[in-house]
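>> Question from a student workshop board

For tomorrow's exercise we were told to take the sequence and the ligand below, predict the bound structure, and bring the output to class. My setup keeps failing. Could a helper post the expected result so I can at least see what it should look like? The ligand is magnesium ion.
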Amino acid sequence: MTSDCQHNVPGIDKRHGPLTVLPLLRDPDRYVRSHIDPASDPESLEYWIGLFKGQIVSILEHAVETDGDGADVRRRAEAVRAEVEAFLDSLRDDPQQYGPLDLLLIDHHRDGILRRHGFHDPHRAVKARENAAALALLPEVIAALDALEGERRLEALVRGVFAGNVFDLGVTESIERFRDRGADFFITRDELPPRPWLVDDFNRFAARWADGPYRKAVLLVDNAGADVVLGMVPFARELLQRGSHVVISANTLPTLNDITHAEMVDLMGRIAALDPLLDAAWGDGRLELVPSGNAYPLIDLRHISPELAAASKATDLFVLEGMGRAVETNFHARLSCDCVKLAMIKDRGVAASLGGQTYDVVLRYDVADAQ
Ligand code: MG
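>> Workshop helper replied:
Here is what the output should look like for this input. Compare the format with yours to find the bug.
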């Protein structure tokens, strides 16, 4: 099916191939991919314009690191900055000029402009660096989790996901924090807000968890580095250890510091060398890696890859991880299986949409929606 959000969007890269609707999505015709309207009032629109203007500066710094600091790169980077700024400024006059404005539409335009100017993966260098740093910590993180039991173990897994999710080079506050002290997983985990969290369905999820394993879990992962390596991989490992079949799905194309499917395959090879359980599960097919079809930090569940659609069959747990996939889009999405949405909120505009503050965390647990 064609993507409504791709109409009139310059430079959209079609290399992700044909896309389809997530079969688990209840009532796709009434699906609203985002509850955040950046143009709800002039003050809000100014906030988001300023945020995306700051973000492109950071993206281009990483692009220069990845592609090398030559005259051609500098020229292309300056062209991107000017074009992105002009696009953002044009939203003041007519926010709906490309259709209903949401954050995913802005991402489409920004990444389209980057790709047209030859920047296909600006964060490649920092992603590789962060993956290597996180891998070195993985055995310690796994050993500490394995020493815990029951609900404490589940809470530690969830807190690991929150802490890993702080490494997000798409948002200004996280970029500044990262600059100051690196993505320190252990410090972040220790400093997480106490429960109850901003959205806190942990007790209901823990009760279901205690009832027995899920048959099959699909995990939509977010960022490279500590996020996937120290947060989501241990969560996947725990599901496998309990007997679930696990599908890890990452973006097909690069965007920001999100991990791609190709990087995930490479990373799992290195993780398997460190962990016999994950090695065995990957070897016998209980752990699958599939590309999501997505090319953005947010995801429209009506536009996923046929591989992810096929892998979602017989799934009874769907996990959306990260602020972009679980809050900026899909916070109110209803699925026909149990769904967990896990995120650390690193942006005050997104936090405000839920009545919270920056660095609040979200665990939303919706049981299978039969309607
Ligand atoms: Mg991300």
